[in-house]
Design a protein that fits this description.
The protein is mostly helical and 156 residues long. The protein is built from five helices and no strands. The protein has two domains: 77 residues; 37 residues, no CATH class.
């Protein structure tokens, strides 16, 4: 996902006012695991990028404010400047917090889904996930042939 040129103007909700973009549409839990993996249900959250974009937009708006500032003091000490920074920082913090929660939930769901699919304990999958370097679909394929080997190592 590329950074948009302008900020989208989504609907306001008192529950999710900090989100400007739509969230990822996940497949139902009854869908096959490989389809859910290919749909991106377990991938890195886009909210991390969106949080970084908020900081970029804050910098742009602050620079615009400084350029158009007509006062005798330092523009960064003006309350309007501080309000701009505060607004964007609040949105950044909320987005980042949500992204961290979502990331943890996705990793736990992936671990549990793989454990259920391969009829093993979640600790075995967690051990594989800690040492594996690759994408989610590659992890799925790696587990196919290596779960028994890891179980033997862990439980012997």
């Amino acid at each position: 996902m590329r950074k948009p040129k302008s900020k989208p103007r989504g609907g306001r909700s008192k529950f999710n006012w900090w989100r400007r973009f739509r969230t990822h549409k996940t497949l139902p839990a009854k869908a096959p695991l490989l389809d859910r993996i290919r749909n991106g249900d377990f991938e890195y959250s886009e909210m991390f990028k969106q949080a970084e974009w908020e900081l970029d937009w804050m910098e742009d708006e602050c620079n615009e404010f400084k350029k158009n500032y007509k006062g005798w003091e330092d523009p960064e000490t003006d309350t309007r400047y501080m309000d701009i920074v505060k607004r964007y920082r609040k949105r950044y913090n909320k987005l980042y917090e949500d992204a961290m929660k979502q990331e943890e939930a996705r990793l736990l769901l992936l671990r549990d889904s793989l454990a259920k699919y391969y009829y093993t304990e979640p600790e075995v999958i967690a051990h594989i996930m800690e040492t594996f370097e690759g994408g989610t679909e590659a992890l799925y394929n790696f587990c196919r042939g290596n779960v028994a080997k890891v179980e033997k190592i862990l439980y012997s």
